[in-house]
Every structure is written in structure tokens, then in C-alpha cells.
Amino acid sequence: MVNNRPTSHWIAPMAILALATFSFLGLGCAGKRTLGTIEILSPKANALIPAGAKMEILGEGYDWAEGPVWVPDETGGHVLFSDIPPNSVYRWKEGQGVSLYLKPAGYTGDVARKGEPGCNGLALDKSDGTVVFCEHGNRRIAKLVDPERAMKITLADNYQGKRFNSPNDLVFHTNGDLYFTDPPYGLEKRMDDPAKELDFQGVYRLSKDKKVTLLTKEMTRPNGIGFSPDEKTLYVANSDPKMAIWKKFPVNEDGTLGEGTVLADKTEWVGQEDKKGLPDGLAVDTEGNIYATGPGGVLIFTPEGEHIATLATGQATANCGFGEDGHTLFITADYYFLKIRLKAKGLGF
Q1: What single string gives the DSSP state of each residue in 91-121?
Q2: How far apart are the C-alpha atoms of 135 and 119, rounded to whole Å?
Q3: Each residue's pLDDT tens digit, 122-156
Q4: Integer Cα distance of 3 and 296 in angstroms
């Protein structure tokens, strides 16, 4: 269905229920192709989203796009993002479009395998400018140290001698510690895979001294992860259709986590035709608002968990991340790679 009608920047909450949030394709300014709609649920969102903002299609035709990360370079910067089933990473740069960057990207074994073997979340290590990968097939956290020769080194691949399930998403603390999640999605048979060595799905910290610490195993499917601006809170998405929630954990002075509480719960939305997807990747802006992919697109929450807007892609939306000058949000939504310009600014820019 094609709908070129602009969406009003303020929509009363009851009116939202009447909106058909399908994957509308349209034309934006200068003939650029756009996708979806913007749903404003609170006037608080007007400080984050410009009137008339649209999600521009930068690329399409992917099996399951994931993990966008902004990488500064000598000519400004570019985005890397994963396409997990075909074991690939793509590169997008303004004026150049999308091109294949790395293949294989998450599985380098000799035995062909099914499922989701590629890499998932990507993160920039600002200490040296390298990119760190959550590799499903290789079941490890790895750093790309030589892009020209596709050379990586393993940062971590086990907890107490047992192999990870399939590292999924990751975020750096400003002290250099790396926090990451480990659900079973990269295993061919997931929870029932005979190669699964851990009987839980964990959230971990990889410290600068290479020590792996289990922070919590209370979440059934830990997925997207991110810090609040002051790094006193860690947000973790739970991509379980029976418990589609986001939790927030206080970060202790030693970097471990306190008891988690629910930030938001959208379990009742799971399975609705216009609410495709589950809690997945997330990003945080400088004011502490959380941009969480989940049922319906990118759900924007205040630090208190109030749902104030949705970037409704109409697709099962996997992840998002800020880039360029910090006011651009890049989004991976199943088949599509998108961007939208915001008033909000992402952390780290």
C-alpha cells in the first residue's frame, strides 16, 4: 500500500489507534523514497522529532539487516551494518550508497550451516578506531584489526570454559569495558541446539583486562543494550514474545549490576499485524531518551519509560544507531536500511 499523505506532527493518542501502520512507501523531498509513518504520542516528542520528518530508504533487499554503527573516516564517516543470514556486512557512505564490505562476517567455519551465521551487533572502539563484532556463527566477540585483509582477533568466546551461545549486541562504557548480551539466536536449533553449552542467556562485561564477568542471567532473551548518559543505568531489551520488555539495571561502582526493573512492557502488542517485531536493538540520546526497536518500529521512551513516539516502519525492526553529526538515526528494518534526521542528538557526538 502506498500512502504519500503527510502525517500530522501531533496525533491524539486515541487517534493513533485508528492509524494503519503498514509499510507505506512514499516520496520525500527531492524525490527520495521513504518508508512508514511517524506517530507522536506526547508533545514531549516534538523536541526530538522535526515536523515533517521521514524515514529515507538508503538500501533494501536484505535478509535481516542489523547492527548499524557509525565509523568516522578521513572523509567524514560511513555506516557499517550486518545482514545476518548471508553472513555479510555492508558499508554505506553519503554519495556512494551501499556496497559489500565484508564476507564472511560472523562465521568462518569450513562446514556449511543454516540459520543466522553472520555477525549481529557492531560497535566502535573509540580507543583505537576499530570495529568490534558480535559473531553468531563463531560464537565470539571479535575485533576487526585489519579491514584490508579481513583480519580479526578474538576478544572473548567463553564464560568459565563454556562457549557463548551467540553474542548479539554490545556497548562500550567510557572506561573501555564492553557490555554484551548472549541469547541463542545464532545457534541453528537455538535453545534446543546440542552445541549449546550454557544453560542460560547472559548479560556480560568484558573488562579491559579481558576478564569476562556474568552480570545477570535473569532475562530469557537479552538482546539490545545501552547506557544512560551518566552510565549509572544499563538498558537491556528482552526479545521474548512471552515477555516483550525492556529492563533497566543500576550500574554499581565496580561495574556490576544491581537488581533490574521493567522500563517498558509491550507484550500485549506481540502478534498484532501492524506491530511487527520484538524488543531488539536500541540507542540513547544525550537527554537520556531511549530509541528501542520493538513491535511497530522504533519506540521512543523517556528515561522514566513513557512511550512518547514511534517511528513506525511497518517492518520487524532490528536495530538503530546515531551517526553523522549525531542528529541522524540509522535504522535496520528487516529488508530495509533507513535514516531519519532528528532534533535529538545521540550519545557520543
Answers
A1: EEETTTEEEEEESSSS---SS---S--SEEE
A2: 4
A3: 999 999 999 999 999 999 999 999 998 999 999 99
A4: 17
Q: Domain tally for the chain?
A: 1
Position 30 confidence tier, pLDDT thresholds 50, 70, 90: low
CA angle 326, 327, 331 (to 5 degrees): 95
- The 10s digit of each residue's pLDDT in 95-127 is 999 999 999 999 999 998 999 999 999 999 999
User: Cβ neighbours of residue 166 under 8 Å, at least 6 residues apart?
Assistant: 116, 120, 134, 135, 136, 137, 139, 182, 183, 184, 185, 186, 187
Domain assignment of residue 193, yes or no: yes
Position 236 in a domain:
no
Mean pLDDT over residues 204-232, rounded? 97
And the C-alpha cell for 342? 532528528
Helices first, then strands: H and E counts in the chain: 1, 29
Instruction: Please report which confidence band the pLDDT of residue 5 belongs to, taking 50, 70 and 90 as the band edges.
Output: very low
* Phi, then psi, of 21 in degrees rounded to 5: -100, 55
What count of other Cβ atoms lies within 10 Å of the Cβ of residue 276? Answer: 23
Q: How many residues are given for the chain? A: 349
Question: Does the residue 74 lie in any domain?
Answer: yes
CATH code where residue 188 lies: 2.120.10.30
Q: What's the confidence (pLDDT) of residue 26?
A: 60
Question: CB-based contacts of 147: which residues, under 8 Å, 6+ apart?
Answer: 101, 102
Residue 138: inside a domain:
yes
CA distances from 319 to 74, 255, 300 (A): 26, 25, 13
Quote the pTM value: 0.91
> Grid coordinates representing 173?
562504557
